[in-house]
Write a structure and sequence with these properties.
Length: about 240
Amino acid sequence: MRLGFIVSFVLHAIVFAALMYDWPFLGARENSYARAVAPTPVEIVTLSELASARAQSPPEPEEETLEENEEAEVQPAAAKPPPTAPAPRPERPLDLGGLENRLKGPGAPRPNPAAAPGPRRPQVGDGSRESQTIESRVAALTQRHMVRCWRSSIDASDPGRLQVVLRFRLDPRGRLDGTPRVLSPRSVAGDPELRVAVERAIRAVRDCSPFPFPDDALVGEHYDFWRENDYRFGAQPQ
């Protein structure tokens, strides 16, 4: 009985001593536990506010774009220089005095008012009866007019072989236009009589100018028929 009382007393003393030792730390544990279980504030965000926040936030730059921009900054392309326009050539002033002197020089051609072409005349169809009549009239007028100007070669040793063909042009007034051209013979070398016959034929055409075609009632308006003429000189004009 006494032993049980002693054991009980000792146990109660130990428990009381333990409580007295742990009492100062009990309040600190309660405070730390209270802090550990303290409520965390939570903010509730609606879907409309979340969409508005995403729309206002600037887009993040892509890595590829940043890399391209960095490469462009590191290696800038060399700008090509603009092509230079050729310098304009200076204009040469027109020397009117020199031009007038050249025109007045001895070798400058002078205008011939008689050689100016006349008004366009009606043409007659080739091969028609009217054209044949006009051609015959031109040939007759030429022969009649040439007899008065030409000196024949009848005094030569063989006048039949002295055949000369000339081609000559006339202006609308019937005057000789240029120098007659010798169609035949091709050469007069070594043949004095033939050379004299050619000279007489050329002189006859020049002396007969002007020709009577413009004043003729039939052929006067048909300049195309007598503008260019081929005429044969022999023992007698043909």
